[in-house]
From TrEMBL:
Pfam families, sorted: ER_lumen_recept (PF00810)
Protein name: ER lumen protein-retaining receptor
Protein family according to the UniProt entry: Belongs to the ERD2 family.
One of the record's GO molecular function terms: ER retention sequence binding
Keywords: Cytoplasmic vesicle, Endoplasmic reticulum, ER-Golgi transport, Membrane, Protein transport, Receptor, Transmembrane, Transmembrane helix, Transport
A biological process term (GO) from this entry: vesicle-mediated transport
Topology of this chain in the membrane: Multi-pass membrane protein
Organism: Hucho hucho
Main location: membrane
GO cellular component: COPI-coated vesicle membrane; endoplasmic reticulum membrane; Golgi membrane
Length: 215
């Protein structure tokens, strides 16, 4: 494992913890897309089915269990514990427009036509677009609380660090995972505009990140 992979995992974990702490402390899930969180829970579920079939390392297994537990805890808080604070009207992205193409692509483009391999491929493709309901919700409401933007920043940083991880592995091991790399690039592109707004607005002390109004 290299430093980019480790830093990426830590950034990913930090992003989820930030989100959970935001919900728990404020007793509210306002401004958070429940649909994105359900998609991320589905990502982890379909990717980590090998928990029951293989052991790569203790670190790998522990991280998988942690991410699964945190993902479902987030979904529980949004749809059960603090359901009354959930803004379902703003969280209106049509997730079927993501799920159907992703499912179809996972059957067409994979490394082996086997159930676990197809589900793993599905999880990679789905993760690249799972954040779209959250970004759509921010666009629709016109602003996001700073704590929510911190969550998105660390989530985007995780993907950027994983890109560095793949570059490092290619140069040191000759390893190249086309599906993971292309999907990671696509996901990172979705964050580019957000990164700019985060640096120019949130880090300069604004309590919320307001989006520019369309002309």
């Amino acid at each position: 494992m290299n430093i980019f992979r480790l830093a990426g995992d830590v950034s990913h974990l930090v992003s989820i913890v930030i989100l959970l702490m935001k919900i728990w402390r404020s007793k509210s899930c306002a401004g958070i897309s429940g649909k994105s969180q359900v998609l991320f829970a589905l990502v982890f579920t379909t990717r980590y089915l090998d928990l029951f079939t293989s052991l790569i390392s203790i670190y790998n297994t522990v991280m998988k269990v942690v991410f699964l537990a945190l993902a479902y805890a987030t979904v529980y808080l949004i749809y059960m514990r603090f359901r009354s604070t959930f803004d379902s009207e703003s969280d209106s992205f049509r997730v079927e427009f993501l799920l159907v193409p992703v499912a179809g692509l996972s059957f067409l483009e994979n490394y082996a036509f086997a159930p676990l391999e197809i589900l793993w491929t599905f999880s990679i493709y789905l993760e690249s677009v799972a954040i779209l309901p959250q970004l759509f919700m921010i666009t629709k409401t016109g602003e996001a609380e700073s704590i929510t933007t911190h969550y998105l920043f660390f989530l985007g940083l995780y993907r950027a660090l994983y890109l560095a991880n793949w570059v490092w592995r290619y140069h040191t091991e000759g390893f190249f995972d086309q599906i993971a790399v292309v999907s990671g690039v696509v996901q990172t592109i979705f964050y580019c505009d957000f990164f700019y707004l985060y640096v120019t607005r949130v880090l300069r002390g604004s309590g919320k990140m307001s989006l520019p109004m369309p002309i």
